[in-house]
Specification:
Keywords: Membrane, Transmembrane, Transmembrane helix. The chain crosses the membrane at residues 21-43. The protein has one helix at 2-43. The protein has 44 residues and is an all-alpha fold.
Amino acid sequence: MPNARRTRAIAIAKADDRAKLFRFSMLMIAAGTTAALLAVPVLF
């Protein structure tokens, strides 16, 4: 059964990586939104 354990470990690692990527993209979107809101008074 070590193969099943390894498969599960890989699946968990991939899911964790996806969660990290999702969190990073959310952070980037939040930073972009903040920058856009701060730039509005400068543009108009």
